[in-house]
Amino acid sequence: MQQSFVKFPKHDPTQFYQTLRTRVNDYFQENHLSQNANFLMVLKTISMFAFYLVPYVGLLLGWLSGWSSLILWVLMGLGLSGIGLAVMHDANHGAYSKKKWVNNLLSHTMDLIGGNSFNWRIQHNVKHHTYTNIYELDEDIDDKPILRLSPHGKYLKIHRYQHWYALFLYTLATVGWVIDKDIIQLDKYNKAGLTEQNGGKPTAEWVKLIFWKVFFLGYLVAIPILVSPNPWWMILLGFLAMLMVSGFVITVIFQLAHVVEGPAHFKPNPTGTMENTWAIHQLATTADFAKKNPLITWYVGGLNFQVEHHLFPNVCHVHYPKISEIVKKTAQEFHLPYHEYPTMTKALASHLRVLKMFGSQQEPILS
Predict the structure, then answer these.
(1) Percent helix, strand, coil in the chain (nearest 5)?
(2) CA-CA distance, 131 to 339, in Å (whole number)?
(3) I need a labelling partner for 279 at 20 to 30 A (CA). Which of 18, 197, 211, 221 fits?
(4) Where are the beta strands (DSSP E) in 249-325?
(5) How many domains does the chain divide into?
(6) Is residue 8 a part of any domain in this protein?
(7) Using one digit for the tens of pLDDT, what is the confidence trace for 162-217?
(8) What is the pTM of this model?
């Protein structure tokens, strides 16, 4: 399915999004606030890097040895996730700062922690944020080897058990990202012309991808093997533990936003025209969770306010708790869906129920 084939209606007779944007803009103007990062966001950025780098220094200096050294790797996995969720994500959306160079610089934290910032902007900013929960266009719900994340996906008998094994597979997400996902993605984007459409040059992007992958493996595997008092096999085991922790955290957070009860899944009709405008589509396909839990909100970069993020991706996440009140009130006023779960536990339980449902449906359900 080609992206250009899918179109959202531009005219909204209800004026929902225009009304919402006006109210949100008024909030920032009346409170004399920038839509970008504030001092607390800067402190968070420093904290996330410390969360990741301090244990790394500890590994090199041998603060812990033997099996206890895995504690440092686990902390690094949590720090890596924090950087990706709470720093890189805003920067790649251009939401961290008004200054483009600041966003560009911090966007490369994705490369620093093993991913590829260029691929991320295409997969996440372009495909996921535009075609949320539309099968064959939103790569987040693409068919995985033994996971069915959309009711429109291809059905396999093993999917009947996916609600039992999915959480383990999520731990392997970052492992796959580091090893081959970026390579497969960039090759696909080059062939589809998406690389050049998004301001990149295929050869240059290959060079940058290879450089950052080598750099990542160099400072996290090669240097610890050379410097740390721990044996090489313990370093590799710790490296794997770090990736598994980060893979689990990052994947769960994103799944709870779209693959839970409430958000709809779509497949375009033959004309390619979607029924709802883009903004209303975001409401229909997205959910919030644990909005009253400040610790979760702090750590996951406000991605538990996913509805607000999808409607205002260029606004720094530190503002989401306040503008969520405006979004929810406006959605209710216009009799539009606003999906939310009071706790992360309830959202996770809902996610597992949806996986079980998708695993029992052999025929795709059309929305």
Answers:
(1) 65, 5, 30
(2) 18
(3) 197
(4) 287-289
(5) 1
(6) yes
(7) 999 999 999 999 999 999 999 999 999 999 999 999 999 999 999 999 999 999 99
(8) 0.94
